[in-house]
Amino acid sequence: MSLLSIRNLQTEFRGPAGIARAVDGVSFDVNPGEIFGIVGESGCGKSATCRSILRLFAGATARIVGGEVILDGSGDLAAMREADLARVRGRDVAFIFQDPLTALNPTMRIGKQVAEIIRRHRQVSRSAARAAALELLRDVHIPSPERRLDAYPHELSGGLRQRVVIAMALALAPRLIIADEPTTALDVTVQDQILRLLKERRDRNGTSIIFITHDLGVVSQVCDRMAVMYAGRVVETGTVRDVLDRPSHPYTRALLDALPGQGGRDRDLVPIEGSPPGLIAPPPGCRFAPRCPFAGPACTQGMAPPLHPRPGATADHLDACILTEVPHAPA
Ligand SMILES: Nc1ncnc2c1ncn2[C@@H]1O[C@H](COP(=O)(O)OP(=O)(O)OP(=O)(O)O)[C@@H](O)[C@H]1O
């Protein structure tokens, strides 16, 4: 039984140029205790998909127009009233943003910020909440946590700030954490520490994590299963080993071919030519077809193809390419 089941999710942004369907029929499942990676080029809808789960949209231009977001035990979040969804946020599902500064109040001491999350959802005394905050700072390996409780965000490094944000996400012991490129703003060593921290939490508490990234190396390092998104749709999904070692969609292959020496491959960097289509009026058929070296006439007609398994592939390894045999790009 999956913890989160997203079915045919559709989210639109209304803008002066028209309505962009940033999420167009996205489906995937996240199992208990699993780290699920979402990858794809900038603008493909990774963040919009994940923000749709908790309806965390900045501004009023975004709207979920179809589909379901079933959280085990809570029902369909997409159909839930705002007041009920507010209770799910933080308690059942927590969000970690790319930039810790946007998640922190610059004028409030760290300890108070963590404690307030606890007090907002639980009936505990001020001192008990402060003690719990200290414990959380310890959990995320913040050095000298007693001293840090009274620090302001600007007094901490970027890495420590992101640890505070993670402590806030862990405060109510959610079953699912959505981490939207949580390490992008950090240097490589700190990145590694944060990844280890999230993994440790999963290993110890069985917390499921959705991890958005554009870094396939990170996916390979921390994720169990993954989805590859392109122009608002999932084009391939499965276990990380299946998708990265046996990619079946030409877009996934192109992404992998663009990596120098990734996963034992020793190929020259092959940039993917062209750019993704606009989302206001995407082309018919497969959205990758205009950039796909293998596309035939059938690829540019009708609806965008749905995900399907291939003969001989693992049951949960699905891709959305209609070609029966997808050759590898020449090495
Ligand atoms: N508030 C908004 N108003 C209008 N369009 C938006 C808004 N937020 C996102 N979009 C559009 O929705 C599409 C998907 O954006 P999204 O941020 O989900 O992509 P992403 O894959 O997470 O990209 P990145 O890796 O750059 O974060 C993009 O075309 C983007 O321009």
From TrEMBL:
Its main location: membrane. SMART domains: AAA (SM00382). Keywords: ATP-binding, Cell membrane, Membrane, Nucleotide-binding, Transport. Residues 4-256 form the ABC transporter domain. The keyword Transit peptide does not apply. It is a peripheral membrane protein. GO terms for molecular function: ATP binding. It is found in: Cell inner membrane. InterPro entries: AAA+_ATPase, ABC_Ni/Peptide_Import, ABC_transporter-like_ATP-bd, Oligopep_ABC_C, P-loop_NTPase. Pfam families: ABC_tran, oligo_HPY. The keyword Cell membrane applies. Belongs to the ABC transporter superfamily. This is ABC transporter ATP-binding protein. The lineage of its organism: Bacteria, Pseudomonadati, Pseudomonadota, Alphaproteobacteria, Rhodobacterales.
